[in-house]
Amino acid sequence: MSDLDRLNNKLAKLKGNDEGYVVAGVTEGIVSVLLTEIEETILPREMVLTNERGERFVLIVTGRRLLALDGPGVEGPGQADGDDAAARIVADFIGPFRAFLDHAREIGMDAGRPPIRIDPTMIGCSVETLAAALAGPDNGPSADPVDAALDLALAGLRLAGGEIVGRSGAADLVARLDAFAAAGAARLAQVAGGEADAPSCLFLSGAGQQGMLLARVAFRGEAALVLASAEASGDLIALCRGERPATAAS
């Protein structure tokens, strides 16, 4: 199964219980999945989302940034320069694009190289800027994101000051995390940070054949190094946006 097939399966599951009503939690899950895709995209990529009526939204992504989006309700090609580009993309993302996701009964995605050359001077909008706009002003974390990440994990290590201060989960998975931590988790902490008042989330691997991903969630000097199911990626991102994970809200 390709990465695109897995993504479409995930989108189908998120929309599986939606019978045409606006369900905010479903949209949040889809947005989290898309933000993860943008964050993991380095080379130019065109992502085309289509609903059951054949309406489409096109996202142009490269270098972990959303450069442009176009679809129903978006005026013009969705491109601009400098700070105006980020502001315009944010407005279109949280406005017409989010409404498109809200009202879709089915969502599918296709992806490939953009049909036109990407202008290297385009700045676009970062995932962090999109996440901050979606979270809204003064919307800090509702709980300790390190604790919450460990709750989502199949196995996890809690770290403070570069030292392991707690373990949880299946013994064989904990052993794998111990080996990773011994090999370089302290050095990773120096690079990834985690001392700030805002939580950070770093995905260290995609989902392998076992369907698990490796991630690090850090906040105020502590961190969780976790092995979690691929489906938990959206919830892990939500923690670092100051939101309550969808699984905790249900």
Write a short abstract of this structure:
This protein has 250 residues and is α+β, with helices and mostly antiparallel strands.
Share of β-strand residues: 15-25%
* Unreliable stretches: 17-24, 138-142, 244-250
Helix content: 40-55%
- N-C termini distance: 29 Å
Radius of gyration from CA coordinates: 18 Å
Mean pLDDT: 78
Q: Could you state the order of secondary-structure elements as H and E?
A: HHEEEHEEHHEEHEEEHH
Describe this structure in words.
The chain folds into two domains: 3-135, no CATH class; 145-249, Profilin-like. It has 250 residues and is of the alpha+beta class. Helix 2 (24-40) crosses helix 7 (233-240), helix 3 (82-103) crosses helix 4 and helix 5 packs antiparallel against helix 7 (233-240). Helix content is 41%, strand content 24%. The strands form two sheets. Strands 4-1-2-3-5 form a five-stranded antiparallel sheet.
Comma- or semicolon-separated keywords:
2 domains, Profilin-like, alpha+beta, elongated, 250 residues, 5-stranded antiparallel beta sheet, 10 strands, 8 helices
Please render the helix and strand layout as text.
Layout: H1 3-15, H2 24-40, E1 45-51, E2 56-62, E3 65-70, H3 82-103, E4 107-112, E5 125-126, H4 127-135, H5 145-152, E6 155-160, E7 163-169, H6 171-192, E8 200-203, E9 212-219, E10 222-229, H7 233-240, H8 246-249
Antiparallel strand pairs: 1-2, 1-4, 2-3, 3-5, 6-7, 6-10, 8-9, 9-10
Helix pairs in contact: 1-2, 2-7, 3-4, 5-7
